[in-house]
Amino acid sequence: MAEAAAGTAGSAAAGAVPRRSPGPLGAYALLAWTWTRAAARYPASMVLLALATGAVGALDAAAIGLLFTRAPRIAGFEVAEVLFLYGTSALSFAVSDILLGTTERLGQHVRLGTLDAMLVRPVSPLVQVAAEEFTPRRFGKLVPAVGVLALALPRLDVPWTPGRAAMVALMVVSGAAIFGGIWVLTGAVQFVLVDSHGATKSLTYGGAFLTQYPMTMFARDFVRAVTFVVPLAFVNWQPALYVLDRPDPLGLPGAARFASPAVAAAVCAAAAAAWRAGLRHYRSTGS
Amino acid sequence: MIEAAGVVKSFPVRGRRRGLRRSRTPLRAVDGVSFTVEPGEFVGYLGPNGAGKSTTIKMLTGILTATSGSLRVCGLDPSRRRTALARRLGVVFGQRTTLWWDLPLRDSLALVRRLYGVEREAHRARLAELTALLELEPFLGTPVRQLSLGQRMRGDLAAALLHDPELLVLDEPTIGLDVVSKATVRDFLERINAERGTTILLTTHDLGDIERLCRRVLIVDHGRLAYDGGLDELRRTVDADRVLVVELARPGPPIVLGDGGPERIEAERSEGPRQWLRLPRGANAAAVVAELAARHEVRDIALREAGIEEVLAGLYRGDHAYSGPGLPRPRSAVDQRSTVE
């Protein structure tokens, strides 16, 4: 008894020591590592899934290579140039998907009420959702993009100035940031969508809800197609024109070629604002 | 520790579709709740299903943003400073775990240490203490998904307390637990409240929890506070419900006592030789029994007092004398209490 009481007093005093919590990136790394260890508890499934991911990635890269090596020119672009365009955007997308792809599942957490548990921890729920079920297997998504770029870069018929090399890095990073912003936006939208649908359903007007459902599904795919394709035109296309030293067929001012970091910053700011607004309007579940 | 003043949470509810327009009427899940909880208190937060308990808890923890009113928890505005508050708050949801499903409990707890930035030494001491109190040792190495409900709940409690929070918020922590696990959890809560001075707010439907642990209860109904006070006072307030069960030597007409006077009692039910007499509030049971014995040949007598369960059921239904006709009954119990005292 006395011992337990002493322990209580001792630890209460220790609790007053200032604490260092990890920042968002540190928390992400910590959670990713934890999820990786969780996945490692099923070693057979981990190995099989890793092999599958790698195989699919390699096949993807091979198919693209095959496709483009058969057609010598596409819309006035060399094969290597087309592969370069594909590779850079695929790399951006893969990086964003690895880091933030699971934010798309936010709706599930909202519906099941598991988001509540995330909200009472001192770490952003965005980080928690994004790091969820992280495994190194996610890096398999890089395989086709890296493969295609490895094929394309040496074949580009451009002088490799430091400016060009930097631009390639910049466009991949900006592209990843833009896609990342879009992942977060899709997540934020689900606060509202699930919310309104859930409320409708909970009031037993479930029938009406069900008839609306296919439309929402359709709308979601449509929205996804547009949102992922439209920024690409600005982010991948414009800097690529600089790297490839080509005139813009649409005649946009030359500054547009350097605008991708600004676009990325704008998209991320919009995503952050939408996420915060979504959290404010979060309604949780009944229990 | 908690200061709530006129807190309202309303949800827009969409009505049935009529043509192109849908009606939108706000539903007030919490409708102007005010209360204060001092450091070190152990408060029960009760109410029937759908009364607004969980909504209040979620506003206190920053999960939901209040529509209006002012709310301070540990001196912070929960929805604006949710992350800062999370460091000073422990939360346990009885219905779902905050642990990592596939990790051994030990690893989950280690992760909690890192997320809350608890010093390694402090953590070791705290973990040893919690392990002893909650008897975690046998299953520290077991993945959370393989734990029984009782073990998992104890693990969740440990995870919520590792960072030594000032306030512990529990949402139905004993739901679904067997008697032994319930007892362990209750003993534990009582201890950390007494020894460490952790303020505890507990919602539950298990009145055993309340009777055992809470010195003060808040009762919420229809989104409003219906009672705020001690458990004993609550019982006294509603103490009308004492019933004499009388077994007479032979069946007879309904017993009438104290006829003519204001203390007139009439049997409200009779079954053969047995009759039930409801005592008016403040009636002297001994006097009633004496009169009964003088007038009737009584074979046996039992006095039944309303348990806390019946008291609450009556309060929820609003069928006690103090709850005026019709709903809602704003703070009726509190009004009544002031007249009793």
From TrEMBL, chain A:
The chain crosses the membrane at residues 47-71, 83-102, 168-194, 222-244, 256-275. Coiled coil: none annotated. Pfam families: ABC2_membrane_6 (PF06182). Keywords: Membrane, Transmembrane, Transmembrane helix. It comes from the Bacteria. The keyword Secreted does not apply. It comes from Actinomadura fibrosa. This is ABC transporter permease.
Automatic annotation (TrEMBL), chain B:
SMART domains: AAA. It is found in: Cell membrane. Pfam families: ABC_tran (PF00005). InterPro entries: AAA+_ATPase (IPR003593), ABC_transporter-like_ATP-bd (IPR003439), ABC_transporter_ATP-binding (IPR050763), P-loop_NTPase (IPR027417). Keywords: Antibiotic resistance, ATP-binding, Nucleotide-binding, Transport. One of its GO terms (molecular function) is ATP binding. Residues 320-341 are annotated as: Disordered. It is a peripheral membrane protein. Residues 15-247 form the ABC transporter domain. Residues 332-341 have a biased composition (Basic and acidic residues). This is ATP-binding cassette domain-containing protein. It comes from Actinomadura fibrosa.
